[in-house]
Write a structure and sequence with these properties.
Number of helices of chain B: 7
Number of domains of chain B: 2
Helix content of chain A: under 10%
Distance between the termini of chain B: 11 Å
CATH class of chain A: Mainly Beta
Shape of chain B: elongated
Largest sheet of chain B: 5 strands, mixed
Number of domains of chain A: 1
Strand order of the largest sheet of chain B: 4-3-5-1-6
Shape of chain A: globular
CATH class of the largest domain in chain B: Alpha Beta
Structural class of chain B: alpha/beta
Number of strands of chain A: 17
Structural class of chain A: mainly beta
Number of helices of chain A: 2
Helix content of chain B: 25-40%
Strand order of the largest sheet of chain A: 2-3-4-5-6-7-8-9-10-11-12-13-14-15-16-17
CATH superfamily of the largest domain in chain B: Periplasmic binding protein-like II
Oligomer: heterodimer
CATH architecture of chain A: Beta Barrel
Number of strands of chain B: 12
Largest sheet of chain A: 16 strands, antiparallel, barrel
């Protein structure tokens, strides 16, 4: 664990009795709210280094993030706000803060509102909250659906949303919808640039992003506690940079010919029990090396998760997650286990108070995907000794928010 | 006379409008609002949508701002009866809004007195306090449940006594009441919502004697009691 992370972790623990308070004040006669959060994790694994951290041996504490936001209610229907976010996850993020979201939101009616700016993208149950550790029972959401090293690709778009809640007649519940369109701009410190920076691709991106549009519709069913939904996202992505894969430094361009995500999900909450399940299919057909080579990325994943609050301050949970990455024939045959990650997870979350929690989590993984082909948590550059089939990991994470 | 009473009774049967049924534990918590809130009553469904930030206005267009208590018996009763979620789940819900840019955190106070004081001075504010708490400077807002909930039949209906003087002077009108019915079917609480106030006492006295079919829990509903001087 590096010294800075260790210091932060210990500082977080010593803050247990502290009750941070959201700041709420008036500015020009209008209510302004300030909120923030931070988390610090530690990961130790037995076989492979995971999530770009050196998790083997003594483990790694390079698992930190924090954010802060301000929002102001301008009128009864109009609200503005923004949030900054920074994270360091192993070799990703690297302490480069970003504008997480910045929105102007006007709600004409409960069934119709618009928001514009940089907006969190609604996909599935947790895409827009995947960074917000304190909202979830788990320290790491199922990586088959919410790969933390690829958060940049789905987390937000610069553009606009239309949204609303439509009560259905005849006791059929309520439909909530979000439609969006905008521009996605990836960080230079995400998993995809990290993967391609290494051999054999040797690509340095100067920009990576493009059009992103889609919709999310979720149905609050008449059956108490049951939610079902579907999300669809289309993208048209370009990546520009340079490469030394062929010797001299040459310009690099890749672009998608087809790029879409479908996600189906359900959630059931009854008293202290919560059960979630999601399925995602991601398909990308792209040209790389300025059109010299066409490749397809075909990913499927699903999970089922359950969590139960056994006491006011203690929640236990578990999930089972499956991830597959299919390789087109022209890429060459992989070994039997190389295209999947099957993961079993158990977790315990202790809420020290309303603002702070600690989670202890065990991950038991079979497989490591295809590390040289698409980011899936395991990278060849972090595992020069070669990857082994099974990985067991201990994750300890604490977070607070106000 | 018998015919007149029968007619009056039939009129009452026809005019008693059941808006809906709810599970309000009127004995534990009451809903209060700033005097600027025009509604005399609110449905349980609308109340839930206001607290979940799904809407910020009532059907009459009045802007409303929900106010919470941080903890305590009134808070627990409110969560259980009207939002049907735990405090942890509600906090998670609000934080999801706050940290994704989709909403803001409602004001929260540490005591009934603070809630009453804030609601009294803040236009559009709506909150909850324990029933025993005084509600000076704010209006009480009965919570009616929704039309689709199962109805409870009236078993015994007592006609109101029309004050002779008022009848002779042809003073009539309709009295609107919110009544809370116990699980056994007795009318436990009556709140005057509107109508001709000088007829209210007679209407309340009659409605308090009504007996409904037994149910699983307390329910609150709205009834209208007409007084027609020409009949």
């Amino acid at each position: 664990m590096d010294r800075r992370a260790l210091s932060f972790f210990l500082l977080s623990l010593t803050m247990t009795p502290v009750r941070p308070r959201a700041q709420d004040f008036k500015l020009w006669g209008r209510d302004v709210q300030l909120h923030g959060f931070a988390s610090q994790g530690y990961v130790h694994s037995d076989e492979n280094n995971w999530l770009t951290m050196r998790t083997q041996g003594a483990g790694s504490g390079k698992f930190t993030d924090f954010g802060a936001n301000a929002s102001m209610q301008m009128t009864d229907k109009f609200r503005i706000g923004a949030q900054v976010y920074d994270r360091n996850l192993g070799n990703l993020g690297e302490w480069h803060p970003s504008l997480d979201w910045a929105v102007a939101d006007y709600r004409f009616k409960p069934w119709f509102g618009i928001r514009g700016g940089k907006v969190k993208t609604a996909i599935g149950l947790y895409n827009d909250t995947q960074d917000l550790d304190f909202l979830h029972p788990f320290a790491l959401l199922p990586q088959s659906i919410y790969p933390t090293d690829l958060r940049d690709s789905t987390i937000a778009h610069t553009g606009g949303d239309v949204y609303g809640n439509v009560p259905l007649r005849k006791r059929l519940g309520m439909l909530s919808y979000t439609g969006y369109a905008g521009h996605r701009e990836d960080s230079h410190y995400g998993g995809y640039p990290y993967l391609l920076k290494g051999p054999p691709a040797l690509i340095n991106f100067s920009s990576y992003g493009g059009l992103q549009y889609g919709c999310d519709v979720r149905w609050t069913t008449p059956l108490k506690g049951l939610l079902a939904g579907v999300s669809r996202m289309n993208e048209d992505i370009d990546g520009y940079g340079t490469t030394t894969a062929f010797g001299p430094l040459t310009p690099y361009h890749e672009w998608s010919k087809a790029d879409w995500t479908n996600q189906y999900y359900g959630q059931y909450i009854h008293d202290k029990l919560q059960i979630d399940s999601e399925y995602r299919r991601y398909w990308r057909d792209q040209e790389i090396y300025s059109g010299a080579l066409g490749v397809q990325t075909n990913v499927r994943g699903w999970y089922i998760a359950g969590a139960y609050r056994v006491a006011k301050r203690l929640q236990l949970g578990s999930y089972y997650s499956r991830y597959w990455l299919y390789v087109p024939p022209e890429f060459g045959p992989g070994s039997e286990q190389s295209g999947h990650i099957y993961e079993k997870v158990i977790t315990g979350r202790v809420d020290l108070n309303r603002f702070m929690n600690i989670k202890v989590e065990g991950h038991f993984m079979d497989g490591y995907g295809i590390p040289g082909y698409y980011p899936d948590g395991f990278y060849n550059v972090d595992n020069p000794q070669g990857l082994k089939r099974n990985t067991n990991a201990l994750v300890v994470k604490t977070s607070f928010n106000f | 006379m018998k015919t007149a009473l029968k007619n009056l009774n039939m009129l009452l049967v026809a005019a008693v409008v059941t808006i809906g049924w709810g599970r309000a534990l009127a004995g534990d918590v009451k809903i209060i609002a700033n005097s600027s809130v025009q509604a005399d009553a609110i449905s349980a469904n609308d109340l839930k949508r206001i607290y979940l930030r799904e809407t910020s206005s009532l059907k009459d267009g009045t802007h409303v701002e929900p106010v919470l208590e941080k903890s305590g018996s009134a808070h627990e009763a409110f969560l259980k009866e009207f939002l049907d979620m735990s405090d942890e789940a509600l906090q998670t819900y609000y934080r999801t809004l706050v940290f994704t840019g989709r909403g803001s955190m409602p004001k929260a106070f540490g005591s009934d007195a603070e809630v009453v004081a804030y609601v009294a001075r803040t236009k559009g504010a709506i909150g909850y306090v324990s029933t025993a708490t005084g509600a000076e400077g704010v209006k009480l807002v009965p919570v009616l449940s929704d039309r689709h909930e199962a109805r409870r039949a009236v078993i015994t209906r007592v006609a109101p006594e029309y004050p002779e003087t008022l009848k002779r002077l042809h003073i009539g009108g309709t009295v609107r009441l919110a009544i809370t019915i116990s699980p056994k079917g007795n009318v436990e609480q009556v709140v005057l919502l509107g109508g001709n106030p000088i007829l209210a006492e007679a209407a309340i006295t009659a409605v308090k004697q009504w007996v409904y079919a037994s149910g699983h829990s307390r329910t609150t509903t709205e009834v209208s009691v007409p007084f027609d001087a020409d009949r």
